[in-house]
Amino acid sequence: MRQVSIIKENHSRLLLFFAGWACDETPFRHYRPQGMDYTVCFDYRTLDMDTNFTSRYEEVHIVGWSMGVWAASHVAPRLGGNVATSTALNGTPYPIDELRGIPPAIYQGTMEGLCGASLHKFLRRMCADSAAFRAFLSMTPRRPLEELREELASIAKQDTSLPTPRWDWTEAVTGMEDRIIPPANQLKAWREAGTPVRQEPCAHYHEPMFHHYLQDRWTKD
């Protein structure tokens, strides 16, 4: 797992964001949560993470998106008692699951057929419309295709070899227009976990959602 510090100003609070598959920090580096340090995590070919730096914060606030929800579910228990809140956006702790995540056949097809054209199609399906897609393309991650294929394979391998993560998320948000992880699967996962979930009329990638949870939410009056 890679970690990039976007804001490192010795604040007492840390916003720790776990991005989705195929991501880097590029689409999320312009957010400025007030009065917080801000770190973006991505690349889940391994879930190894140096968590020592989080111990100096009085509060750690976790936001996970898409596959980052699964990754954060494994990492969060190692962060200690200073995790104050955790918010899951359009994801579940089950990356490959017929009823609670991405159906296995779809995941396998994505992995086996990954190429430049299929990645372009995937990114388009993340977005609600062509305008949102064009905006995302202006700041799209720049990671090698082979690395993304390795990431998919590694996530699948870890999902079968690791125990089911045990982390009680504070809240979850499900986009009811999500075309990547079926909304019904998300709702089932969170209802089984007893996690408060809010349904929003948005796609898998919804910039206003990130603007709220990675910036506006932390603005003090």
Short description:
Helix content is 33%, strand content 19%.
Written description of the protein model:
This protein is an alpha/beta fold and 221 residues long. It has a single domain, classed as Alpha/Beta hydrolase fold, catalytic domain (Rossmann fold, 3-Layer(aba) Sandwich), CATH 3.40.50. Helix content is 33%, strand content 19%. It has helices at 67-75, 104-112, 116-126, 130-137, 145-161, 183-193, 207-214; strands spanning 2-7, 13-18, 37-42, 59-65, 83-89, 171-175, 197-200. A 7-stranded mixed beta sheet has the order 1-3-2-4-5-6-7, sandwiched between helices. Helix 1 (67-75) links the parallel strand 4 and strand 5 (83-89). The protein is globular, with a radius of gyration of 16 Å. The mean pLDDT is 96.
